[in-house]
Every structure is written in C-alpha cells, then in structure tokens.
Design brief:
single chain; alpha/beta; Amidase signature (AS) enzymes; eleven-stranded mixed sheet; about 10% strand; globular
Length: about 475
Amino acid sequence: MVWDKLPELVEKVRAGEVSAVSLVQQSIDKAKESEDYHALLEINNQALEQAKSIDERIAKGEKDGALLGIPFVAKDNFLTHHTKTTAASKLLDNFQAPYQATAIEKLEAEGAIMIGKANLDEFAHGSSTENSAYGPTKNPHDKSRVPGGSSGGSAAAVALGIVPFALGTDTGGSIRLPASFCGVVGYKPTYGLVSRYGVIAMASSTDVIGPITRNVSDSGYLLDILAGQDPLDSTTIEREKSYQSKAHNLKGLKVGIVSEHMGEGVDSSVKASIQSAIDKLKEAGAEIVEIDMELNELALAAYYVIAPAEISSNLARYDGVKYGVSAENAGDLLETYLKFRGEGFGEEPIRRILTGTFVLSSGYQDAYYKQAQKVRTQITEEYARAFEKVDVLIGPTAPTPPFKLGEKQDPLSMYLSDSMTIATNLAGLPAISLPVATDDLPVGLHLQGAQRTDKKLLDIAMSVEDLL
C-alpha cells in the first residue's frame, strides 16, 4: 500500500473518495499480512467503530479535522484507551491506562484513528527492538536484521506501509536510529516542544516525542498538531506559528559536516552514501564547512551516566504494589519488591537501574553524575558555537547499516549505535533522519538544527529530501 501525503489523503476522505472505514480496514489487513515482522503488539479493536463514527460525521457535513480518518500507530509506551500499555515489559503485561497521553488526545481530536500499539525495546531501553519482552521486530528490508530501536516497531510499521505515520519517543536517538535502519523519516523536535504527559518516562531530561513518517512534509504537518505548551507537562515550551514545511533555498546555505562523524568507526557504505549527499548539496550551491565537535566523543559516556540515573529514579515506582502484575506468594514487603523487580525486569532495564543507582549513590554522585552534567553543559555550548557558523549540521544518523539480529551481544557495542544521535538529546536540539537512496540497505542522513529552529530545520530537510 502506498500512502498519499497526509493533507491529500485527508482531502480524499472529506470529499468521499475514500472512507475512514476503508483506510482503517486496509491498515489492519496490512498489519495482519505483516505479522512476521512483529511490528505491532496489539490491534485496537475499537478502531473500526471509531472510523465508522467519523464517516457518519462526514455524511452529516461535519468535515473538520486535520487528520480526518487517518490511521496511525503509537509506540507502546504511550498511554491509550482501548488497548493495553505494556512498554514491552512483562511488568505491565495487563496494564490498562486510566487516561490518554496528550499527544494521542491531540491526534484523535483532529480525527486520527490509532489502529494499534507498536513494539519497542522494554521501557525504551535499547537500540534494536530486540529487548522487547514479547520478541524482536524484524527489519522491513531484511528479516534477518534489526529495525533499530527503541521505536523499532513504529518505524517498521511505516516502512511496511501499515500506516502513513507513527508516534515514537527519542531519548538518545530512538526515533532517528530506527528511521535510518528502516528507510523512513524520523523527526526529533526541540526538547519540550511536544508534551510528554501520559508517556512512560525513561530519562526525563532527554525524552522527546516525535513522528515517524514517509516524507518530511508529513513530519511538519504532524508537528503543527502536536507542538505547544501543556499545563500537564511543565517542561513544555512555546511553539512557533506553523511548522508546515516549505522548500528552503539551498544556494548559500551553510552546511556543517561534523568531522568526528565521518571518521574512524563509520562503515564504508554509510560514509559513501553520506558523502554522495554532501556532494549533491555542494552542486546545489550549499556552502560546505567542516566543523570539529570534539566534545561529541564524550557524549556517549555522559549520556550513559545521566540517562541511567534518571531511569533508576523513574523505574522506582514499579514495585509490584500499585503498577503492573503483582508478585504472587511473596512474604513481606521487601520480598515483594525483590520478587517483582527481579523477575519482571529484563536484562537491559536491570543493567541501567544498577548503573543509575550506583552513579547516584553516596560517594559517587560527585565523581560521575555531576561530572557528566558538566560535560553536558559544555556539549550544549559547543553546539551553540557551531550554529554561529552554520545553518545546519549533517552527517550519518548511525555509524552502520542495520545489523543482524543477535549480532551485538556486548552492551557497549550496542550503545555505540547511538553515538551519532546522543549529543543532540543532551543539548535539546531538533534533528531529523532522512533516508539516503541506496542499492542495498537503508542509510540515514542526520540533520541537526539549533534549539527552537524546528521550522527552519524542516524547511531545509524538505529541500534536501527533494534534492536526493
């Protein structure tokens, strides 16, 4: 199934050329045909009823809604009605949320219909969607490979044509990495631009919500709906008037190449694809400048101190008493905690909880956590200096193409997959991954903008997309 751009699809629904029911049914049918890829964990059994209600409204002449009748999927860490919210963890195997995430509410208010929940790494801890308690998702281009993570199910659902867009979360690259591996567009907004209310927290100071789409135009269209302050999320910031993308003139555009991202450790095929894109930008009149971001090399280390510390705090609420499946046959309260958390969490969440608890513990907080926060500030300042010289930074989204399922057993090797994206989250910047044409496996081109320049970044990305 090939989806039209979202505004065009909405106009067809309004005009009666297609019905909401037919679009939702096609999505559900495609999801069932694609079960081997394990992109979705659950289908929303109310989706067709919601679509029917929208068709009835249209028949009465009620045609408002920027996403009228459009199906989508949400990563299964968004709280939603009509489906469970498991975060791909056995701890929340039967959890039914009492309310919905703000992002879901905003999309549904515009007529969008969630047809299911997408697979992810457990509690969004991972870069391959292999850490899901319900089994891995497979790459749409090669079933033997990973789709990236942690929003792997969302990216795979878009790449497979199940839906025209999906929601993901990005804490250190978890929208952009799977977009790169699956050959779709993944957008990470400026930190705080989209409300995180009703989304299961991972690392609260870097968590961001964003869309995964088939083109840049749809990313801007969706951000226009999702962005804005929310009284339920105190970290949200003011929005610009519009985020709907328009082509930006590439002639004279100052493009910074992060030299550290085109050096050692980058796969030759990735480097060749990115260099080809850079050459085309130069031919189009862009001014190419090499930018040294020396502190980027410290970003991975700083992130894996800061993020586990916040994870340790955020996951403390899962104790087998209030949330999730209760520990059976446990004796006292301590035994309940030990049994529930010891048996319920997978290896990666346990690894991050232990790391986070250690770096926050007495005698180690100053040595690790505070030092990592100082590095974070320096990284943010380094980006600010870079954007005084250039309009946009570009490079690979990931150092490698999608790797084989089970290939990266060493945690550090897995963490390195996010080495190109993590600094962006530490600095709170907007960024986007665009698919680069390739004869083999997908490669993502990573574009980063200065804080709160989302509209400008989307405009540039649209022009780069057209060029490529």
